[in-house]
Design brief:
Distance between the termini: 24 Å
CATH architecture of the largest domain: 3-Layer(bba) Sandwich
CATH superfamily of the largest domain: FAD/NAD(P)-binding domain
Largest sheet: 7 strands, mixed
Shape: globular
Number of strands: 20
Radius of gyration: 22 Å
Structural class: alpha+beta
Strand content: 25-35%
Number of domains: 2
Length: about 350
């Protein structure tokens, strides 16, 4: 990976190593001599694997056009790597049967392509790229516990952190890590309000929106004799009358990822019969008929997003945490870069 140096500082720290953190680090490496990613989880070492730090990684993710363009700009050749990893390429107009609140969408070759794959493959490919950049260091099992400031507390000058070892779970002594810039990408679990209160600032006001939504997903082997005029199915919710939705998309290794989403009190569960019943009760039988006799490749995985949160910081700084919006993570990091260039 070749970078044009526009260095404005010596050291930047990124808190969090999910997609937002990885992309932020990639952008910052063009502006700082050294970038450090602090991630409380551990990354897979030899191949793509799910990890606790990305709890939603087993649910459906697709990479849409603008996200692909941004990521290809940041990581040339990434799209080819995803396709080499057997990501499915879908024409969203021609290949996907889409039932929306107004009926079935017209099918036509749109040229609007999306990549469908297991989310953790994308994370792994980007992590692998960044781990090979000499000016980026990735500190795993690292927890930020506070902020460093200048003497009059008008500027953040780094973080206080603890690192947890492989062989034991207890934290070691606190360490101080100086930085010219600290960016918090730790998402919904961010402790930034508490860190600010600890250095004498008020916690920001915030807006929280939650729908008590739940997801359940499972992989199935695509039957050798399966025939249909579609490659994917999207059954959209139609609130307030119907708040459930269902999806089926092809991914790598000749698998379908099948998911159902609904709000409380009807959130899906890991129960086999209930999962199939949720698919059967969708307003179209497309998904249920496809999988009822297919061979499951995994257990049913569930995910309950905690909601969406906006925090309003001083001086018109806005921090946001949106769950399950991979394109938002990509776009947010890129837009900040574009505005900076402008």
């Amino acid at each position: 990976m070749v970078h044009v140096s526009l260095a404005r500082g010596r050291h930047a720290v990124v808190i969090g190593g999910s997609m937002a953190g990885l992309l932020t680090a990639r952008i910052l490496v063009d502006y700082f001599e050294q970038v450090t990613i602090l991630e409380c989880d551990r990354f897979p070492t030899t191949s793509p694997q799910p990890r606790k730090g990305v709890p939603q990684c087993k649910q459906l993710h697709i990479l849409l056009t603008r996200g692909r363009q941004i990521m290809e700009e940041l990581f040339p050749g990434l799209e080819a790597e995803l396709i080499d990893a057997d990501a499915a390429v879908l024409d969203m107009g021609a290949d996907v049967a889409w039932l929306n609140p107004f009926g079935w969408a017209a099918r036509f070759p749109s040229g609007f392509e999306a990549l469908s794959f297991s989310r953790y493959i994308l994370d792994w490919l980007i992590y692998r790229r960044l781990s090979q950049v000499s000016t980026i260091q990735i500190l795993e099992s690292s927890f930020v516990t506070g902020l460093l400031t200048n003497s009059n507390k008008t500027a953040v000058t780094g973080v206080v952190m603890r690192r947890r070892g492989r062989e034991h779970s207890e934290s070691v002594q606190p360490e101080e890590l100086a930085a010219d810039l600290v960016i918090d990408t730790s998402g919904y679990s961010s402790q930034a309000p508490n860190w600010l209160k600890a250095i004498g600032y008020d916690a920001p006001e915030e807006t929280v929106v939650t729908t008590s939504m739940g997801y359940a997903s499972r992989l199935y082997e695509i039957p050798a004799n399966f025939q249909a005029d579609w490659r994917g199915v999207y059954i959209q919710a139609a609130p307030p009358e119907r708040t459930s939705m269902g999806v089926l998309y092809p991914i790598e290794n000749n698998h379908w990822i099948v998911g159902v989403c609904a709000t409380a009190p009807h959130r899906p569960s890991k129960n086999e019969a209930e999962f199939l019943e949720s698919l059967r009760n969708l307003p179209s039988p497309h998904i249920y008929n496809a999988v009822k006799d297919a061979r499951p490749a995994t257990e049913i995985g569930i995910y309950h997003p905690p909601g969406n949160r906006l925090r309003y910081y001083e001086r018109n700084v806005l921090a946001a945490s949106y769950k399950d919006l991979l394109p938002w993570e990509i776009l947010s990091a890129h837009l900040h870069r574009s505005m900076d260039r402008g």
